[in-house]
Each structure stands twice: as structure tokens, then as C-alpha cells.
Specification:
The chain has 16 helices and 10 strands. By secondary structure, the chain is of the alpha/beta class. It has 2 domains: 3-148, no CATH class; 181-448, P-loop containing nucleotide triphosphate hydrolases (Rossmann fold, 3-Layer(aba) Sandwich), CATH 3.40.50. The strands form 2 sheets. It has a 6-stranded mixed beta sheet, with helices on both faces. Strands 2-1-4-5 form a 4-stranded antiparallel beta sheet, covered by helices on one side. The longest helix is centred in the N-terminal third of the chain and has 31 residues, at 94-124.
């Protein structure tokens, strides 16, 4: 088969998403020009229209249909690959037949998602739904008309820069503590589907030694992202200081100054409690420690967490509360300054959970900093000193809505229960009150004053 004869078709597939006969090439070019102008009107870079595959996602952003744009972008890329690969199969082969079926199925899915994106674009530009016909059949024509027509203007910009009000920055910077935790987080962002997505922004706080802090926030508010930024697992554009030392700049020396206990333990069920802690000591204590010194430290930690009676038991035979205490004990081996725990009471009944949190309270009283994420805070709230409340602003970026003592948090939110505070900052479509922006602004203004 002469592959060279199909090179123009393959180039056309890559550039335009479909094979185009030379007669229709001017129409395809006009379509790109129209898209360029539409992207500019929607607040995006016009040159995205020239980027294959990516322009599909950008059009979805203009349409306020990002969720539909993601699968449509993937379908576009797969369709191009399938169509190009079909040229390498003889027309009479089973491969060509299969490729044809796959291409038809992909085309049907593309049509459905494209239909939704075009409907969204019509809504954003506040036009009549009859426009769906030319958009689905003769997309170059409406693209040019909407791109260059003065009366065709979007009601709002694309999500990438869309905002009903300017983003408020507190301008505050936490004072560096000689003892304790200092967080000055400017931004934590990532790249997602050809655009920058800000996950966290403008979070500053100082936490003194001996404080037990509750970390609250609804789903997607950035709790896990925040703790990963603090413990150095996912560095942000930030300064994280422990006892005045920069965590990011001295990560290798300070990584064991933070103990992080995830929701799911990673222990081997066949090992004994003692062996598990000895392995943790070998990993977390300095190499200068002798074997006997490691043994002494393990014995001390087992005594602190009430694990001495079960030191010879296999991990798999421990109760839920014992396993959780063992997880915490492993992180306590190097005697860290800061403890972060992600739902340590998950799967535990009220009595066992209470005992666990009382033990954490005792650790905090020894001059440690304890930060805890839990979905049932009200049953143990009396054991905490402070609360951090993270909330998604209108741009779905995690922001600081409160940090401070529990009684002051209740007065600030005018709610007694912590679960009601979370409900107040959750979005309405998530069953909340949708007041996140109000509290983020209120907190920033109060602490900027």
C-alpha cells in the first residue's frame, strides 16, 4: 500500500481533526480564524485555535462546559490516532474493519459531546438555540460570524480567568516562630488539561508548640493538598518553617521532624509489633544510633502508646484501635515536632476514638504540634485548641476561611458545631450554605486590619 499517497490526509487529520479534501481547505482555515476570535472574546489566547486537540478543550472552556470538554478532548485525540492508523491496514483486512467500527463509535460520542459544548456556547453568548444547526453542520460560518460580529459577545469570560470579583489577597505574612510551625503559602498550582489550576492560595498561619489543631474543609477544599505542602511531599510556592528552619530548603535533614499518619496504614500484617517498630527505627533514626539505642527508643514508644502488652503480636491480629496506635507510634519514633494525622478515627467506634484523641492530646501537651483531619470532629472537639477552616472560593481554589481558637471560630461563623461550620462554607450544590467567599473575605479583612 502506498502510504505516501495518504500523507496529506494524515496531516489534515492532525491539523483539523478530520481528513479534508483540498476543495474544503479554505473553509477549514476560516473555521480556525473564527475560533481564534471567539477565544479572544472569551478571554483566552487566540492561538489556541491552531493547536490540535487542545483547541477542543479551550472551546469547552468558552462554553462553560469543562466537564464535557475533557472527554471530548480525549475522544478527539483517540479519533485522530485511530484514523491515522487505519491507513496502515489493507482495506480488506480485519484490522481495517475493526478500525472502521471503532471510528464510527468514537464519532458518535464526539457528536454527543460536541452538541453539549455548542449548546453551552450558545448560552454563554446568549443566542437562540436555533444556532445549534449551523454550529453542528457548518461550523466555519457561525465561527466567523460570532468571532467578528460585534453583537456576539459572551456574558462572561472563560473559566480560566472568569471571576465575578477580583481575587482578594490578604497581604498578610505570618511571623517566623523560633519555636513552632510557620506557614506562608502563596500558591499551590498544577497543570490540568492545558491550563493552570490553582489548588491553594494565600494561606498564612503560626502554630505554637503544644497546640492540637483541627483541620476542617469540605470535599475538594484542599485539606490533603495543604498537609502535603506542609510536610514537603508536594511542595508549593511557599515558606514552611519548623522552629525557624525552612522545610523545603532543608528537607533531607528535616523530613523526620514531621510525622504524617495517613488514613490507610502501610504495615505488613505478618510482622510483629516490635519488628514493625524496629524497622521504623532503622529508617527514621539517624545512622549514628546504635542497635541498643534503637531498641531503647522502641521500648519507650511502645510504653507511651500502650503497645508493650502486644509487642509479640502480629499486626494482622491487632484491633482497629491498636493498629492505629501502632501507625502513630511508627511516626513518633524520631520524636518529631509536628504530627499530621488524616482521619485517625476512621473505622473506630466512639469510645476507642475518644481514647485515641486523648492520647494525641497528651502528646500535644508534651510540646508537640498536632494537626488532625477528621469527619467527626464534634465528639472530640473539647480536646482541640484551634481550628483551621479551608473553603473553596468562587474559582474553586482552597482559601483560608479561619484559623484560631475554637470559641472564637464559633463566634466568627455563628455556629456551635464544627460540622455546621463546614456546611456553611460548602457550595450549595454540595448541600452547603454557599457562604465560602463571604467568610474568606471577612477573615482576610479582619486579619489584614
Amino acid at each position: 500500500m502506498n502510504i505516501q499517497a495518504h500523507i496529506p490526509d494524515m496531516i489534515s487529520l492532525v491539523l483539523f481533526g478530520t481528513a479534508i479534501h483540498p476543495v474544503f481547505l479554505p473553509q477549514a482555515v476560516l473555521w480556525l480564524i473564527g475560533l481564534w476570535k471567539i477565544f479572544e472574546k472569551c478571554g483566552l489566547k487566540g492561538w489556541w485555535a491552531l493547536v490540535p486537540v487542545a483547541r477542543v478543550y479551550q472551546l469547552a472552556l468558552c462554553s462553560d462546559r469543562e466537564l464535557e470538554g475533557r472527554p471530548l478532548t480525549v475522544l478527539e485525540a483517540v479519533q485522530i490516532l485511530v484514523s491515522c492508523s487505519s491507513y496502515f491496514f489493507p482495506l480488506v483486512s480485519d484490522g481495517a474493519y475493526i478500525m472502521s467500527i471503532v471510528s464510527i463509535l468514537l464519532g458518535m460520542l464526539q457528536f454527543i459531546y460536541t452538541f453539549k459544548v455548542c449548546l453551552g456556547l450558545i448560552e454563554v453568548f446568549d443566542q437562540k438555540k436555533i444556532w445549534i444547526i449551523p454550529w453542528m453542520l457548518f461550523d466555519a460560518l457561525p465561527a466567523l460570524i460570532w468571532g467578528f460580529g460585534r453583537k456576539f459577545q459572551p456574558l462572561w469570560k472563560a473559566k480560566e480567568i472568569r471571576d465575578d470579583a477580583p481575587v482578594f489577597f490578604s497581604g498578610r505574612k505570618a511571623n517566623v516562630l523560633e519555636e513552632g510551625l510557620t506557614v506562608n503559602l502563596e500558591e499551590r498550582s498544577c497543570r490540568e488539561f492545558f491550563r493552570k489550576k490553582v489548588l491553594l492560595r494565600d494561606i498564612c498561619m503560626e502554630i505554637q508548640p503544644g497546640r492540637m489543631v483541627l483541620l476542617l474543609g469540605g470535599s475538594g477544599a484542599g485539606k490533603t493538598t495543604f498537609v502535603n505542602a506542609v510536610n514537603g511531599y508536594e511542595p508549593a510556592k511557599a515558606e514552611i518553617l519548623i522552629n525557624g528552619k525552612n522545610m523545603y530548603k532543608n528537607y533531607k535533614k528535616m523530613q523526620y521532624d514531621i510525622g504524617f499518619v495517613p488514613q490507610q496504614d502501610l504495615m505488613r500484617g505478618s510482622d510483629s509489633v516490635y519488628r514493625t517498630l524496629m524497622d521504623a527505627a532503622a529508617l527514621r533514626l539517624p545512622s549514628s544510633f546504635s542497635h541498643s539505642e534503637r531498641q531503647d527508643r522502641v521500648e519507650q514508644v511502645m510504653e507511651i502508646f500502650g503497645l508493650t502488652p502486644v509487642k509479640r503480636e502480629q499486626v494482622s491480629k491487632l484491633s482497629g484501635g491498636q493498629r492505629k496506635r501502632l501507625s502513630i507510634a511508627m511516626e513518633f519514633i524520631p520524636n518529631p515536632t509536628l504530627f499530621i494525622l488524616d482521619e485517625p478515627d476512621s473505622g473506630l467506634d466512639g469510645v476507642i476514638a475518644r481514647e485515641l484523641f486523648e492520647q494525641l492530646r497528651q502528646i500535644a501537651d508534651q510540646g508537640k504540634i498536632i494537626i488532625v483531619i477528621t469527619h467527626t470532629p464534634d465528639r472530640v472537639i473539647d480536646l482541640f485548641d484551634d481550628v483551621i477552616v479551608l473553603a473553596k472560593d468562587r474559582n474553586r481554589t482552597g482559601r483560608l476561611a479561619w484559623y484560631g481558637p475554637i470559641p472564637e471560630a464559633r463566634a466568627f461563623f455563628q455556629r456551635e458545631k464544627m460540622e455546621d461550620i463546614v456546611k456553611s462554607v460548602n457550595r450549595k450544590e454540595e448541600g452547603g450554605d454557599g457562604l465560602a467567599d463571604d467568610y474568606i473575605l471577612k477573615y482576610a479583612e479582619v486579619h489584614h486590619a
